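JOB MANIFEST
job_type = single_chain_structure
chain_count = 1
residues = 216
[input]
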Amino acid sequence: MTAAPASTPEPAPAAAPGTAAAPTPARSAAARRSLGVMLLLTVVGATLVLWAAGRGWASGTVAGLDVTASGGDVSGLPSALALVSLASGVAVFAVRGPARAVVGGLVTLAGLGIAVAAGLGAGDTAALDSGAARKLGLTGVTAEHVSHTAWPWVALLGGLLLALAGMLTISQGKAWPSMGARYDAPTARRTAGAAQAAGTPADLWKALDRGEDPTA
């Protein structure tokens, strides 16, 4: 008696061409973690920059008077770029696709700009001399016994953290969640309703009489 041939398992159906694979729970969790790291880097980096910019970066004396130059006196660039980075971190949730890479590039450039400005301002004395001149009401005054603090390096560290947040956005941003589709639903419903209302020539004339653009 001849044994019946064993049945071979049928291969699993292949995904249709052009269809993206559904994200697995592990991949979704990794995306959320990287998004959390980006937000943490952005908040911590911007906070360090804004905090350091309000502190004294250099101090000295002129005619027996003490003069101090804050980070904002030395350069307003770090504070401005830190605020831009914070706004860009929020904007990540409102954009999708390639736009996120653009936002990430903006934050990266802002962070590097902060780092450069802070590094150049670490040994700057022009702001200190300018403050001394304003205090005495004279020109050409030079501060003496000048000393510098570590706050410029704190700002530089904050700038590097922001640059890391931007690079993380560029590399991982496409996998991050965004605003729900419900924000787009009213527009989609209006578009579908307009297309249905403008289905016949008579409806086109009615739409024109109401002042609407049936081709929109």
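[summary]
The helical segments are 25-53, 71-74, 77-91, 98-121, 126-136, 151-172, 185-197, 201-209.
The chain has two domains: 30-176, 185-216.
exit_status = 0
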